[in-house]
Amino acid sequence: MVGSMRETERKYDVPPFEDISWLPGLTRLDGVTRVADPRSEELDAVYYDTEDLRLLGSSVTLRRRSGGADAGWHLKLPLPGDSREEIRTAPAEHIPGELLDLTLSRTRGAELTPVVRLRTHREVWPLVDTGRPEGTVRAELSVDAVQAESLRAQGGRTAWRELEVELAEDEDDTAVLDAVDDLLRERGLARAQSPSKLARAVEETAAAPAGAPHPSTGPAGDQVLAYLRAQIDSLASYDPAARRDRPDAVHKMRVACRRLRSCLRSYRSVLDREVTDEIRGELKWLAGELGPERDQEVLMERISHGVGTLPGELVLGPVAARLQVWDVARHAEDHRRTLDALHSARYLALLDTLTALVERPPLRAKAGKKAEKVMARAVRKEYDRLARRMTEALSLPPGSGRDVALHEARKSAKKVRYATEAARPSLGDPARRLGKRAKAVQKALGDHQDSVVARGTLRDLATAAHTAHETGFTWGLLYGREEAVAEKRERELPALWEHASRPALHKRLRG
Asked: Is the separation of the CB atoms in 132 and 173 below 8 Å?
């Protein structure tokens, strides 16, 4: 893999005979003191997708480009706002295997074939700030004359002009984009209607198959399915980053699994559990496969932070080295387990099943009922389960039994949170407030559980140090700190729970 870069750009429609001779006048913009002489490029790109355009449907593009300085294979993945991550590899006849892997969560294993060919004549004006060292290029403005040709049977041709403004590779201040945007709008140029050249080409050449519309399910069903779609998209979106071992990606995938499982459980009155229980089982499997890598990440961060906050005179022996060796060995094994799961037929089948779930949902009668009533009842049920578990846990004496009970209460607090997330469109502030307070309870319970797990690991590290004739002083000190954290959280819990269980908070949910 050659590498990746963040691409932040905005596109504008340019009418066929629009006069753009005014472009060099952009020097009146803040941060732009010179418009460099333009350069011309001839670009030729073939875009690949599945038969039913699964990549395009998830705002992902895969192309093989010739011409220009970046010839080769490009995979573009969506990021928040106007940004995308572009991953490039060298020119090759066939799609590189690493890019195929990064598209799997969207293609679900379907074949990728040529869809559209775009030939572009590009004029590029660098926007320079001479007040910065060596006349820094802040952004580039380009005008593209595009010719598009469908590579599918019965497809046609089209052509258009568009203008792009893209931040320079090392630039992250979007103020220059805002300034250019203001000027372009003054000149009557509007933001492009299509999100990408490919999307416009597919639309105008009739290269897209007729898509299946979202089913009409009724108020409650619509709300539940909208939440499920968002989580399914999140699961697929974080897959490429998880494969590349990017920070927090596995965690985000695991959270999406939990949210999906929780929604299918909480809203069984909307979707038939004879179908969804099996899906919940598969989501549990996937979360379990991702769990060791995420748990190791949390543990390493927690213990490293603990070591880092100790005065130097209290860190005795090769503590950092032992911790690093322990982490490297565990992380490599855990990441391999993640990759095995993400490459498995079982995972792809799960993604297919989730897509079918929202395209052909197994609806129950309550899907057509008023969302407020259906959602409120589901949230109440999850809250009542949490209340029972909290009451039980807080009644137990300190010890391993209470630790287990608090961990179970933590799981219930998460279910309340996720149920309120799905319910917010219809329940509004009451759902938001309950979710916020359930999160506070969950956070305290989570810190308590992380302390329980960390103490077990610290005991193992101390034992290994002792076996190697190293002092276990620092590990023991950290163990004692973790005990103090757990005790503090247990003291805080009654007040947090009282705050989350006030009757006034649940008045609307009780109807």
From this structure: no
| Domain chopping of the chain, boundaries | 3-204, 219-510
DSSP per residue, 425-467: HHH-HHHHHHHHHHHHHHHHHHHHHHHHHHHHHHHHHHHHHHH
Buried b or exposed e, range 318-349, using 16+ CB within 10 angstroms: ebeebbeebbeebbeebbeebeebbeeeebbe
Among 434, 435, 399, smallest CA distance to 417 is for 435
Closest CA to 217 of 364, 428, 424: 364
Mean per-residue pLDDT pooled into runs of 10, the chain (511 residues): 83 82 74 86 95 94 88 92 91 94 96 96 89 79 94 89 90 86 87 91 79 70 96 96 94 97 97 96 97 94 96 95 93 96 97 96 94 94 95 94 96 96 93 94 96 96 94 96 96 92 64 49
Distances (CA, A) of 194 to 10, 12, 197, 200: 11, 9, 7, 6
Q: Do domains 3-204 and 219-510 have the same CATH topology?
A: no
C-alpha torsion 153→158→162→167, nearest 10: 20
What predicted TM-score, i.e. pTM, was given to this entire model? 0.90
Buried b (16+ CB within 10 A) or exposed e, 469-508: ebebebbebbbebbeebbeebbeebeebbeebbeeeebeb
d(CA 245, CA 339): 10
| Rounded-to-integer distance, Cα 231 and Cα 378, Å | 19
CA angle, residues 381, 382, 387, in degrees to nearest 5:
95
Helix (H) or strand (E) holding 400: helix 400-427
- CA–CA dist 250, 24 (Å, integer): 47
Q: How far apart are CA 24 and CA 34, in angstroms?
A: 8
**H helices, E strands: number in the chain:** 14, 9
Distance CA 427, CA 306 (A): 41
Q: Cα 207–209–214 angle (5° rounding)?
A: 135
Note the residue count of the chain. Answer: 511
CATH of 3-204, one of 3.40.50.11260, 2.40.320.10, 3.30.70.20, 3.50.50.60: 2.40.320.10
Provide the angle, in degrees to the nearest 10, between the axes of the packed helices 219-243 and 249-266.
160
Strand partners, 187: none
Pick from 48, 56, 47, 53: nearest CA to 77? 56
Burial class (CB in 10 A: 0-12, 13-18, 19+), 317: middle
Contacts of 468 (CB under 8 A, 6+ apart): none
- Give the CATH superfamily of 219-510: CHAD domain (1.40.20.10)
